[in-house]
């Protein structure tokens, strides 16, 4: 993990889900001067409205490019986000790893970002994981990010030939309110983002899933008006 340096216009791959955290991460990368190439993944998630949000965010924040990779993790299931037979939890954030955890999702997405970064001759990847106000996912922890970065430096042609890779997780130690305040300062339009685990096709949020609760609490604590559109 590294604090984003002044990039001098270098290319970076930014994982962009369309949610609040990834939008803020894109804004951070852009503010650091990177030419941002955004990558979203259509993995069979029930909240596919986030992909439309990602496209809108990429355009609004001046990304050089936005690509969507289709990779159907719903063939495995194992998560409330990819298996319609598993209900989204709506009783508040509970201890432990919730059923919304998608097995190996961040590892898969970071691997795709790593592949694209090599093709772009980029040594910088940005990801919006957060280990403070989050739902307990194991692949959002600092030690995971550090381990993936170490692995990437062993696994790529560019690294073997001497070009180091940096995995930036600028939100890793920030609370949701801090993230929102930072994004507001950087000009993020959070009305474009979709965080809800069961957003409808128009991107309207349910207000009761874990992600919605964390988002609501973040806006309240940041004293920033919440622009989220709700279904009811």
UniProtKB/TrEMBL annotation:
Highest taxon above the source species: Bacteria
Family annotation (InterPro entries): QueC, Rossmann-like_a/b/a_fold
EC number: 6.3.4.20
Cofactor dependency: Zn(2+)
Positions with a binding annotation for Zn(2+): 196, 206, 209, 212
Catalyses which reaction(s): 7-carboxy-7-carbaguanine + NH4(+) + 2 ATP = 7-cyano-7-carbaguanine + 2 AMP + 2 diphosphate + 2 H(+)
Residues holding ATP: 16-26
Textual note on the cofactor: Binds 1 zinc ion per subunit.
Keywords from the UniProt entry: ATP-binding, Ligase, Metal-binding, Nucleotide-binding, Queuosine biosynthesis, Zinc
Pathway the protein takes part in: Purine metabolism; 7-cyano-7-deazaguanine biosynthesis
Family: Belongs to the QueC family.
General function of this protein: Catalyzes the ATP-dependent conversion of 7-carboxy-7-deazaguanine (CDG) to 7-cyano-7-deazaguanine (preQ(0)).
Protein name: 7-cyano-7-deazaguanine synthase
Lineage: Bacteria, Pseudomonadati, Pseudomonadota, Betaproteobacteria, Candidatus Accumulibacter
């Amino acid at each position: 993990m590294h604090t984003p340096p002044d990039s001098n216009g270098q290319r970076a791959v930014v994982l962009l889900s369309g949610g609040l955290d990834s939008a803020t991460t894109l804004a951070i990368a852009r503010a650091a001067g990177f030419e941002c190439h955004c990558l979203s993944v259509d993995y069979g998630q029930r909240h596919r409205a986030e992909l439309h949000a990602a496209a809108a965010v990429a355009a609004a924040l001046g990304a050089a490019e936005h690509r969507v990779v289709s990779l159907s993790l719903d063939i495995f299931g194992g998560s409330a986000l990819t298996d319609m037979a598993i209900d989204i939890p709506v009783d508040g954030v509970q201890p432990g790893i919730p059923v919304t955890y998608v097995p190996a999702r961040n590892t898969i997405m970071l691997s795709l970002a790593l592949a694209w970064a090599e093709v772009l001759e980029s040594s910088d990847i940005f990801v919006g994981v957060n280990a403070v106000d989050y739902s307990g996912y194991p692949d959002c922890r600092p030690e995971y990010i550090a381990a993936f970065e170490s692995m990437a430096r062993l696994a790529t042609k560019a690294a073997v030939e001497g070009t180091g890779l940096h995995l930036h997780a600028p939100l890793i130690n920030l609370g949701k309110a801090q993230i929102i305040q930072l994004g507001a300062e950087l000009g993020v339009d959070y009305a474009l983002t979709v965080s809800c685990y069961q957003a409808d096709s128009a991107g309207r949020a349910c207000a009761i899933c874990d992600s919605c609760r964390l988002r609501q609490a973040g806006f309240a604590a940041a004293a920033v008006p919440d622009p989220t559109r709700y279904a009811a």
